[in-house]
Amino acid sequence: MSAESDMEYSDNDGDDYDYYGEQDDCDMETVDRSKSDPEFFLYSCLKVEEVEKLLNESIELLSNSLQITPSLAKVMLHAYGWNAQEIINKYRENANEVLVYSRVKPRLPVGQANSSRTNCAVCANTPLLHKYSALACGHYFCNDCWAMHFEVQIMQGVSNTIQCMAQDCEVRAPEDFVLSHVTKPTLRERYQQFMFKDHVKSHPQLRFCPGPNCQWIFQAWTREGARRVECRGCELLTCFSCGAPHHAPTDCATIRRWLTKCADDSETANYISAHTKDCPKCQICIEKNGGCNHMQCGACRHDFCWVCSGDWKTHGSEYYECSRYKEDPNLANDSQHAQAREALKKYLHYYERWENHARSLKLEEQTLASLKSRINQKVMAGEGTWIDWQYLWDAARLLKRCRYTLQYTYPYAYYMEVGPRKELFEYQQAQLEAEIENLSWKVERAETTDRGDLENQMDIAEKRRTTLLKDFLEFNTNNASSSTKV
Amino acid sequence: MANIAAQRIRREIKEVMKNEETAGASIKLELIDNRWTELKGEIGGPPDTPYQGGTFILEIKVPETYPFNPPKIRFLTKIWHPNVSSVTGAICLDILKDQWAAALTLRTVLLSIQALLAAAEPNDPQDAVVAKQYREDPHMFEMTAIHWTNVYAGGPTPVFEFNQKVRVLTEIGVNEQVARVALSTYHWDIERATEEIFSIYP
């Protein structure tokens, strides 16, 4: 029985629509996912073979309707972003233009004088007449040179875009021409692998899962805004639009800016912010060496919060006020130096929280692993069946996802302009953070008897998360530019 | 593979020599070792340019996969040009990179480099300092290029004012090359060049 329960868990892991617990759906009486989940995005997660089939359908469609070889169809599809219908329409209007644009034919017809068949311009040899070949441009070279040219190009990772060897000739070598000259099996295989990768990359509906050694490929139909796709293989969350890790509610341009900024600024700032802080009362430099956020200055005995440096006494009821960034009202009067300092302070405020949640997320990963063994132990010891413990597993997964969203709210807030909308955002962010901390606490200490309480907490946390996303993600995708400043 | 490379180089040297006789074109090609992997190129500065009358030596390294990969070429003679590094002699030219075609020859490449001397591409610079001067102060650029051609490439036109400024700095113990680069960079303003030199070499 225990072996069976193990299997049930791993089956559950792979479900790509299991974004958050099944229980929520039951409560809502099977509502349309696109309404209940503000991040809902229609996509599929395909295996290599499925993608090959999909690509072949386009290739066949094109080669049948235009009566051309599949390998020419590939060159054209690659050039036109895999829009077979567009190619067919344009081809009927002006076939020559399509062929020139996809670099199947040369822009200008090549005169006979340019294409000697008695002397190979590349190797300076004079092989027998029948040993020459040329692409549509009519630049003849000997077959040995073609073979060598393809070998060098393939070894450099070029596949779809291998060109003719003549000077200023942009005509591309189609697959059948390349393969008729390349004989080494390893090289042929390599070429075909590169071709496939290149095809997926040039296809607007496809994106490789960026996970290490992951073979899955996403298919979706739009490339704008933060679009969550989850890999069936490695469970990595990716943004379909930009290929970065999924980043709702922040949009693609903003997250790119934020990540670049972090990469540029964080080396020094990182150390200062991660390891030291001045006592807010006596300004002595304090290094945090672990423990909780309630600090007591060794010099002046002042009690303060490590996160916001505020007096600890005020932290009783409104602890999570410290997730809110307060712009200094006197800023305008200060010197340039002070403004720069303030800018750094603002950046550090968001960066610290961003980093902190990234770290917590990694720890959450460990919690999941230990939870699995804890559940197995309990089941083995006869304390309930796996069904009884399933909820805890769901809670941990939900927690991970909530934290993920929370992490990505910080870059969003950093680039937001001060105003009522930012206040609303930070209010919701604070609420979400508080509920996540509550849930985190409960998950780590859960026993079977706590089930109702825990599920209640799960529901609250998830509601906070979806509310925030609903209010800001849609806004985000509709008018991305108006909410952020440069 | 190396076989094709050797064959090609042998033929290309012949080709250059033949053309040299007939057209009297100002390019030369010489073998350095007998393994066909390293050559010395020579181009004359094109007429009606600051490089006129100068002779520029190039280092040519032939990869084993030649002609399927481009040769590696750089200036050994120092030159003041937006697309050539004034420090290393590296050249920014499309046919030496992604626009290389196996049917190109060393002769065509040398001719292209010669053409580059006549028509710089300041929007695709190799040396940002030179390119900036080329765009913002064309006269200063031209004088500097003439000066460099005279000093390093045997050009016929000395620029006395610049020679004198270099001498001022060498007389106080600055390396001649360091002095010339600093002066060229700072538009021959002795004070700023001196400042620059002594902030780097204290």
From TrEMBL, chain A:
GO terms for cellular component: nucleus. Its main location: nucleus. Keywords: Coiled coil, Metal-binding, Nucleus, Repeat, Transferase, Ubl conjugation pathway, Zinc, Zinc-finger. Gene3D superfamilies: 1.20.120.1750, Zinc/RING finger domain, C3HC4 (zinc finger) (3.30.40.10). Residues 429-471 form a coiled coil. CDD domains: BRcat_RBR_TRIAD1 (cd20344), Rcat_RBR_TRIAD1 (cd20360), RING-HC_RBR_TRIAD1 (cd16773). It is found in: Nucleus. GO terms for biological process: protein ubiquitination. It catalyses: [E2 ubiquitin-conjugating enzyme]-S-ubiquitinyl-L-cysteine + [acceptor protein]-L-lysine = [E2 ubiquitin-conjugating enzyme]-L-cysteine + [acceptor protein]-N(6)-ubiquitinyl-L-lysine. Pfam families: Ariadne, IBR, IBR_1, UBA_ARIH2_N. Belongs to the RBR family. Ariadne subfamily. This is RBR-type E3 ubiquitin transferase.
From TrEMBL, chain B:
It holds the Pfam family UQ_con. The keyword Nucleotide-binding applies. InterPro entries: UBA-like_sf (IPR009060), UBC (IPR000608), UBQ-conjugating_AS (IPR023313), UBQ-conjugating_enzyme/RWD (IPR016135). The active site is at residue 92. GO terms for molecular function: ATP binding; transferase activity. Residues 4-154 form the UBC core domain. Coiled coil: none annotated. Gene3D superfamilies: DNA helicase RuvA subunit, C-terminal domain, Ubiquitin Conjugating Enzyme. Keywords: ATP-binding, Nucleotide-binding, Transferase, Ubl conjugation pathway. Belongs to the ubiquitin-conjugating enzyme family. This is Ubiquitin-conjugating enzyme E2 K isoform X1. The gene is LOC113516596.
